[in-house]
Amino acid sequence: MLNPVVDSIPMRDGKKLAADVYVPSGCSSCPTILVQTPYGRLPFRFGLPLGIGQNINSSDYIFVVVDWRGFYGSASAAVASPNRGEDGYDCIEWIVNQSWSNGLVGTWGPSALGKIQFETAREQHPAHVCAVPLVASPEFMYQDYYPGGVYRTEYVEQLDALGYGLSAGLLANPFYNITWLFAENNSQYADEINTPMMMIGGWYDHGPDGTIDHFLALRSTSPLAVRDQHRLIMGPWAHGGNGTAHVGDANQGDLFYPEAEGWSDSLAILFFEHYLLGVNNGIDATSYITYFQMGENNWNTTAVWPPTDVSALRLYLQNDHSLISGMPQNSSGSSAFVFDPRNPSPTYGGATLRQDLLQGPYDQTDSVESRADLLIFETPVLGQDVVMKGKVKVHLWVSSDRTDTDFAIRLTDVYPDGRSMLLGDGIRRMRFRDGYATGDTASMVPGTLYEVDIDMQTTCITFLAGHRIRLDISSANYPRYDVNLNNGGTMYSAGDTLIANNTVYHSSVNASYVELQLQDFMGSVEDQENVTLQVYPNPATDQVLVSTNLSNSGQWILYDYTGRIVDQHLFSAATFSLNVSGYAPGVYFLCLSNKQQHITQTIVIR
Questions:
Q1: Strand partners, 290
Q2: Residue 365: which CATH number?
């Protein structure tokens, strides 16, 4: 157990914050790493972050760990509306005036300990020379608490349990209104941050989009002098907490990523060495973004996000419950399931926060996919690696016999041994299908077909050959999301629950699909072991020769990169020519199909 010097730091209002100060022996002028926590400074006495462990005397840094105003040792400093950025500024001001300080301060910490770093940086203390926030961004967004219009039950329950007390205010504002507009505008201040930041996020965290979006805002709007000094690290990590490993650990849920172990600390140390110790270690010459490609399990770099080598591909839901890159060929087709709010589809892993829940990637086969209240669509066994980098969007045609219900999706990577490992999820409340303001909402007419988009957070994975891509569709994911009572009444209040009979459509007229951002994809997600399709020349400018063993007759359809049908005709020979001179230059998908099989090839037209 480490033995710090216990001190108190005066704030500008005369109140004081409790602090533990760890000073290496012999330090007369050292840089400081400041950690501000609402979870109690005492646990740090059993080991400091960044690999320092028990031996503070071997560290090049002083550590100052401070209890937030109103929490733990700083409970007596509580005020109604604390400005935590000003508190951070005052902590730095106190540090630089101590005899052991060399006048340079960096900040570190995950989650809430990360958010407060942005607030502190906003105050622009000149001694705040670098910051490393993990799994955190400063924005307070409607979609963070009501994704798809659905309240994040377990997330807010955990925040309340930690002392934030957000639920009353959130439940009073379930629609996007002026309160949300003010909150969002006040939390977007990347242009005010002139402290170099190394943001560290996780693909299994509950906010990878927020992390990425804020980093891109820093890169485009923070002061010019600091704009090129920001870095982003995205690894295969969950948020952290009970029941799961923390950011930087190899074990995440049911999966193991030894190639990512220790990276968050190692890169943070390089960042601190450069800005606090003046070490010329090359961190300032690295790419702006370093990211982990799951599946391949390796690290990549890019200067922009999304990477320039990805494009959208749609996998369409078929009547046989397959997912393929060709449009459904039948003019009718649908699948139905029963949703009982009293027995909702359960949350099993994923981007959770509540400490009694699992976090990260877990096998869905027993807890979720064995139930009758969902639909499963999946690709054939992949005949090639499929590299995905970016956001996932699901577009569904749906109907219900109720005036309101939810549609929830889970995307999984199905291993050859049958494990269905969760990658991410999304949900949409049907009354919010046209928007989230009060005036945008609308009841469903039972039996009427509606289009609805469901977004999933950004992720980065290579689906390996021999695996399958699976989409689970249900109407709940509880307690991650609130359960719709299906009665169309006032939300988040007691009421009768109604069983809903919900339907998803998958036909050439009402085509549902999942859209993935794929890298350099020059083939189909169907198993190509027995079916071939050759196009020559490719790229092409006028005539191409098409050769296939699919059959001697069938239909060909040409899609543009958005999935829109450009042209379609019947073919009656295994080899035929196609004139592409009339099409605009770009990337197209040529799909050949008969009644049994489909195959797709990419054509680049110049």
A1: 233, 301
A2: 2.60.120.260
